[in-house]
Amino acid sequence: MIDRTRLADLYAREQREFAAKHPRSAEAYARATHLFGRVPMTWMNKKAGGFPIYFESARGSRVRDIDGNEYLDFALGDTGAMAGHSPEPVVAAVTKRVGELGGLTSMMPTEDAEWVGAELSRRFGLDAWSFALTATDANRWAIRLVRALTGRSKILFHSYSYHGSVDESLIVVGPDGEGMSRPGNVGAPVDVTMTSRVAEINDLVGLERQLAYGDVAAVLIEPALTNIGIVLPEPGYHAGVRELTRKYGALLIIDETHTFSAGVGGATRAWGLQPDVLVIGKAIGGGIPSGAYGLTAENADRILDRDDLDLIDMGGVGGTLAGNPLSIAAMRATLEHVLTEQAFEGMISTATGFASGVQEVIDRYGLPWSVNQLGARTEYRFAQPYPTTGTESDAASDGDLEDYLHLYLANHGILLTPFHNMALMAPTTSPDDVRAHLAVFEAAIAELTAANWTHEAR
Ligand SMILES: Cc1ncc(COP(=O)(O)O)c(C=O)c1O
Prior knowledge:
The chain is built from 14 helices and 16 strands. It has helices at residues 4-21, 23-31, 88-101, 112-124, 135-150, 204-211, 237-247, 266-270, 297-304, 325-338, 341-364, 390-395, 399-411, 431-449, and strands spanning 55-59, 62-65, 70-73, 128-132, 154-158, 171-173, 179-181, 196-199, 216-221, 251-255, 277-281, 291-295, 370-374, 377-381, 414-415, 422-424. Helix 3 packs antiparallel against helix 10. The longest helix has 24 residues, at 341-364. 48% of the residues are buried. It binds pyridoxal-5'-phosphate.
């Protein structure tokens, strides 16, 4: 369907264009010899243009790079900036803490923490909250707690899920239907099948087969996969998961870090889910490192009543800077003033416009692609119908096509998340921004599929 020679030609042209537009970024990258992989964090080497775009500043949905190029940002820090860049109430709260009050980390509670806990309870329904600085850490600590609660060792994940660099989670369903290490896993402490089990999303039979071993402490899942495209649950799937987890004595941990896009209380509230533990990170701090995990009152008491568990000192649940005044102030400001019910209404309606516009382009050009939406988040995938499992969605990846589209969009002032084709709406994303993206997206497709193309001999 896609002419690969043409794709390669167009991609090469976009790379030349990218290099011409980003000389300072190219120089900064060439100079960065004291950084591991030349970047502050190795995933910043996901660079369709050959080197990363160096960030200068951002407000709302707009980003500027050090070469003076401006972008409409649909990546939003892969959800960390879903509240928009530097939203005013967060800036005010953080500035007050940093400047006026002083004290960025203290190991002493602030009164804001109870406000944040109460608000998380109102939104997500769990009773007792604890804080972390990343969703990865929130997941790690949730895992320790469910092991302590159940006395079981294994955690069960969806194949091709992502929950941060949590050792247990790097498992996929192998060709024989059993678990195996996710390809590329760095430095696994032990064979992942010793700590984990795995099933495809939307496969209740596979899930039951794994739970029947009787060693699963908890099923830790996103309500929909969001890190291998958006793979939505089929009707009845979540009711089945809850029934099976109860039947086999496993707890249910829902990770709402990305599915928070579904609404103020994430997919848990939108779809009436009943987790035993809920994890969330990224956007709740408006960009300031934040994470949280919530327990039911009953499970919280069961843990707190145990004399054999050290929750105060060396027991392994912690992080010196977790729950620090800055992070808590940022969470309060974000939840109280930015990611409100009203904001979500606007974000979701903007995303609906984005998804239907992309679908129209796909239809107009007769491409075998499809679009999914999860509240304020949309994603198109190079498959039709849209994949229904992680493994199928992984198989629908097309790195060359993604690189071309990402680079074409970036050269025309649009940022998609660097991984797959996710576009996220902030409260500041407008229907005009969506129209601007669609015009560029369509132009990229038109060039790729034009009838009057001739191969550029290189
Ligand atoms: C569902 C989910 N959970 C956890 C994480 C890890 O978040 P962090 O990198 O902030 O630790 C991610 C990151 O993408 C995620 O998508």
